[in-house]
Write a structure and sequence with these properties.
The complex is a heterodimer of chains A (387) and B (278).
Chain A: E1 4-12, E2 18-27, E3 32-36, H1 43-51, E4 58-63, E5 66-67, H2 73-76, E6 78-81, H3 93-103, H4 108-121, H5 137-149, E7 155-159, H6 167-184, E8 187-192, H7 195-201, E9 204-209, E10 212-217, H8 219-224, H9 229-234, E11 241-249, E12 255-259, E13 262-266, H10 270-276, E14 283-288, E15 301-313, E16 317-323, E17 336-341, E18 352-357, E19 361-364
Parallel strand pairs in A: 3-8, 3-9, 6-7, 7-8
Antiparallel strand pairs in A: 1-2, 1-4, 4-5, 9-10, 11-12, 11-14, 12-13, 14-19, 15-16, 15-18, 16-17
Helix pairs in contact in A: 3-4, 3-5
Chain B: H1 4-33, H2 38-43, H3 59-67, H4 70-101, H5 107-117, H6 122-136, H7 143-146, H8 153-165, H9 168-176, H10 181-189, H11 194-209, H12 213-218, H13 227-233, H14 242-274
Helix pairs in contact in B: 1-14, 3-14, 4-8, 4-11, 4-13, 5-8, 8-11, 9-10, 11-14
Classes of the chains: A alpha+beta (387), B mainly alpha (278).
C-alpha cells in the first residue's frame, strides 16, 4: 500500500498530440479513486504514465513520497488490469497467477501459498488448470485481477476492466472489485468512461476532458456541485440539460431568467443574487438535471412550458424528450430530457407544463464555469419564493 | 435430359482434372519409376497404362547407396537446413520484433530496406557474394552454405506482420509483472507466435532443402555437398540410370514432405492469419 502523487504531469506524443495537460492528483494510502472521462480524454494515458509504460513529458510521479519517473514498472510495484485482461493465452490460470511471482524470484513454497490465497479470494480454485480461452468473460476478469493482486502491489491500476462484460455481469464484478479493494485496502486508480461505474465505486472521482482535469470530488459533490458545464453534462444519466439563456436584474433582489422565449421570475437568496447579478444582461447557460423536472408544483418551483417530442417508458420511470422553442441544448443539440417517476402520459400536442425547483437550477458562464461556485467551495442554494 | 449447366460443369471438372494431372503425373512417375527396372523407366514413360511397375523392386534404392554417398548428402542437407532454419528463426524473429515493437532511430528506413531486399534474387548477388566468401576463406565449408542465408528479408517481413497483430497489452502486462525484454520475447511473444514460426521454418526448409546454385558455386567436395548436388552427380556418372535418379528423388523429398504434413496445421493457420501466400 502507498500514497500516490502526480505533480503537474504533462504528456506530449511524438505526433504532436498532447494527451495530458498539467495534471495534478494525490491519492491517499488505501483510497480508491476513479478517473472518468469520455474516450480520448487522456485517462488511460495517465494510468500508463503511472504504471511506467509511458514516460512523462513534464512533471513528477511520486509513490510513497519517492520520485519514480525513471523507475521501471516492476520497481514501482504497481499492478494493472487491462481492458482486454491481457491474460497470457498459452498459460493456465495457475501459470498466469504465478507469473509475476516467478519474475520476482519468489520461493516456490511462497508462490503456492500466495496463489492459493488469491484463488480463494477470487473463487478461482476450480479453474486453475484451464487456459484463458476456456474461461467466460467474468472468469477472465477475475484471473486478471488475481494476477494483479497476487504480488501485493503498492498501487493497483484498473483500465476499464468491465467494458467487455455484459450489463448484469458488470454490476456483479463492480461489487466484487469494491469488496476486494475494501478488504485488501490497496491504493487503487480505476479508469472508466462509464459514469455509473465512477459514481458507484470511487471514494473520489476525477473527471478529465481533453487531457485536462475538470474536477476532483466525491460522487455526491460531483453530481450536486459540478464545477463546469462539462462535468454537469457528463455526470448523471442522462446528463444535465444545459440551455442558452439570459439574466436580467430587476433591482430589488429579483432576477428575470429568459429561457426558450419564456420569462421566468427568480427570487434567489441574497448570496446567489450577488453571484448572478454581474451576469445581468449577458448570455449565460442554465442547467437543469433531467430528474429536476416535476409535473406538480412546489412552493419554490418555476414553471416551464414545453412540447413533448417523445416519451420512453422504462418501467419504473419515463424519459420525456422536451422541446423549448428557440432553444438548443448546449452540448448535444438534442432536445431536453426529463426523467419522471412512473408512467408519464402525454396529453396530445398541447403544451405541457413542468415544474422545477429554483434550487435545482445551475448557471454557467460563457466559459462553462459554474457561476454559483465561483470564488467558493460549495455553491449557495437558489431556493426562494417565486414571484 | 442433361442440361447445359451440367455439361458446362462437366467440362470445367474435366479441365481441372487435366490440370491436376499435369502436376501429379510427374510426381507419380518419379515415385513408381523408382520401383521399376532401369530399362523400363524411360521406355514406359508417357504411357499411363504402364505407370505402375509390373513388380515393385528396391533395386534402384540399393543402387543409389552403392553409387553415391547418399547418407552423407542427407546429413549435409539436414545439418545445413537445420542450422539455417534454427538460426533464421532466432535472428529473423528478433529483427522483426525490433521493427514491430522497439523505437530506434532509422527504424522505418531500415524496414523499407528489408522490404526492398525481398525482391532481390540470389542469382543477382551470387557473384559478389562468392567473392566475399572467397576472401573470407569459407569456400567448401558448411558455414558458407549456412551463414549467408540465416538473415532472410522475407522471414523478417512474415514475423513483422504477425508481431504487429499480437496484442501489445500482453507484453505490457509482462513488463508490469516484472519481465525484461528478453523474457517477454521468449516467454510471451514466442509461444504466442507458433504459427508464424512454423510457417517460416517450413518455407526456409523447403528453400534450403532444394538449394542448388549456391552449393554448386562454393563447394567441391562431397563431404559438405547437399542432396541437390548429389542427385546431379548421377548425370555425370555413367551409365545414366533414371531409376536411380527417381529413387534418389523420392528419398530426397520424403523428409520435407513428412515435416510439412506434421506442421501443416500451424502452417495453414499462419497463412490464413497473416494473409501470406505460401
Amino acid at each position: 500500500m502507498a500514497s500516490v502523487e502526480l505533480r503537474s504531469i504533462s504528456k506530449h506524443f511524438e505526433n504532436g498530440t498532447q494527451a495530458v495537460k498539467d495534471f495534478a492528483l494525490t491519492i491517499e494510502d488505501g483510497e480508491l479513486v476513479v478517473l472518468v472521462g469520455p474516450s480520448g480524454c487522456g485517462k488511460s494515458t495517465l494510468l500508463r504514465l503511472l504504471a511506467g509504460l509511458e514516460n512523462t513529458s513534464k512533471g513528477e510521479i511520486l509513490i510513497d513520497g519517492k520520485n519514480v519517473n525513471q523507475a521501471t514498472p516492476q520497481q514501482r510495484n504497481v499492478a494493472m488490469v487491462f481492458q482486454n485482461y491481457a491474460l497470457y493465452p498459452h498459460m493456465t490460470v495457475r501459470a498466469n497467477l504465478e507469473f509475476p511471482l516467478r519474475m520476482s524470484h519468489t520461493p516456490k513454497k511462497q508462490i503456492n501459498s500466495r496463489v492459493g490465497e488469491i484463488a480463494d479470494i477470487l473463487q478461482l480454485s476450480a479453474l486453475m488448470d484451464r487456459r484463458p480461452g476456456q474461461l467466460s468473460g467474468g472468469q477472465r476478469q477475475r484471473v486478471a485481477m488475481g494476477r494483479a493482486l497476487v504480488r501485493d502491489p503498492s498501487v493497483f491500476l484498473l483500465d476499464e476492466p468491465l467494458s467487455n462484460l455484459d450489463a448484469s455481469l458488470r454490476a456483479q464484478i463492480r461489487a466484487e472489485i469494491s469488496r476486494i479493494q475494501k478488504r485488501l485496502k490497496t491504493t487503487t486508480l480505476y479508469v472508466t468512461h462509464d459514469q455509473v461505474e465512477a459514481m458507484t465505486l470511487g471514494d473520489r472521482v476525477v473527471v478529465l476532458d481533453h487531457g485536462e482535469l475538470q474536477q476532483i470530488a466525491t460522487p455526491q459533490e460531483l453530481y450536486e456541485h459540478p464545477q463546469n458545464s462539462f462535468v454537469a453534462n457528463f455526470i448523471g444519466s442522462p446528463g444535465m440539460n444545459i440551455l442558452p439563456s439570459g439574466l436580467i436584474d430587476r433591482g430589488d433582489g429579483r432576477l428575470d431568467l429568459s429561457l426558450g422565449g419564456q420569462q421566468i421570475h427568480l427570487v434567489p437568496e441574497r448570496q446567489v443574487y450577488e453571484k448572478l447579478v454581474p451576469y445581468s444582461g449577458q448570455a449565460v447557460y442554465t442547467g437543469i438535471r433531467p430528474e429536476a423536472f416535476a409535473t406538480r408544483s412546489k412552493e419554490s418551483s418555476i414553471e416551464l412550458k414545453t412540447n413533448v417530442a417523445a416519451v420512453e417508458f422504462l418501467g419504473h420511470e419515463t424519459l420525456a424528450c422536451l422541446f423549448l422553442p428557440g432553444t438548443a441544448s448546449m452540448h448535444t443539440d438534442q432536445p431536453l430530457v426529463a426523467r419522471l417517476p412512473g408512467q408519464f402520459q402525454q396529453r396530445g400536442d398541447d403544451v405541457s407544463v413542468f415544474y422545477i425547483e429554483q434550487e435545482a437550477l445551475y448557471f454557467f458562464n460563457k466559459a462553462g464555469r459554474n457561476i454559483l461556485m465561483e470564488g467558493s467551495g460549495n455553491p449557495p442554494s437558489l431556493a426562494g419564493a417565486v414571484s | 435430359m442433361i442440361g447445359t449447366h451440367t455439361v458446362i460443369k462437366l467440362f470445367v471438372y474435366l479441365l481441372l482434372m487435366g490440370f491436376a494431372g499435369m502436376f501429379l503425373i510427374p510426381v507419380a512417375m518419379m515415385l513408381f519409376g523408382s520401383f521399376k527396372p532401369d530399362d523400363q523407366v524411360l521406355a514406359q514413360a508417357g504411357r499411363l497404362g504402364h505407370l505402375l511397375p509390373a513388380e515393385f523392386s528396391w533395386y534402384n534404392y540399393r543402387d543409389v547407396f552403392a553409387r553415391v554417398p547418399f547418407a552423407r548428402y542427407l546429413f549435409n542437407s539436414a545439418f545445413i537446413s537445420l542450422c539455417i532454419v534454427a538460426g533464421g528463426l532466432l535472428v529473423n524473429s528478433l529483427a522483426a520484433y525490433a521493427f514491430a515493437r522497439l523505437r530506434w532511430p532509422g527504424r522505418d528506413w531500415m524496414l523499407m530496406v528489408v522490404v526492398a531486399l525481398m525482391i532481390i534474387p540470389l542469382e543477382a548477388i551470387a557473384v559478389p557474394l562468392f567473392y566475399e566468401v572467397t576472401l573470407l576463406g569459407w569456400r567448401d565449408t558448411y558455414w558458407v552454405q549456412i551463414i549467408p542465408f540465416i538473415a532472410n528479408a522475407f522471414s523478417i517481413y512474415l514475423f513483422y506482420t504477425f508481431f504487429l497483430g499480437l496484442p501489445r497489452e500482453l507484453e505490457e502486462a509482462a513488463r508490469i509483472d516484472g519481465a525484461g525484454p528478453w523474457r517477454i520475447f521468449f516467454r510471451i511473444v514466442m509461444p504466442n507466435a507458433k504459427p508464424v514460426f512454423a510457417t517460416v521454418a517450413i518455407l526456409n526448409l523447403l528453400t534450403q532443402w532444394g538449394a542448388f546454385l549456391w552449393p554448386l558455386m562454393v563447394t567441391h567436395s562431397e563431404a559438405v555437398r547437399p542432396l541437390p548436388l548429389g542427385i546431379a552427380t548421377f548425370y555425370s556418372l555413367p551409365p545414366l540410370q533414371w531409376g536411380d535418379i527417381f529413387a534418389f528423388g523420392v528419398m530426397m523429398v520424403t523428409p520435407v514432405l513428412l515435416i510439412f504434413v506434421l506442421f501443416q496445421h500451424w502452417f495453414v493457420q499462419s497463412v490464413a492469419t497473416t494473409g501470406v501466400k505460401g
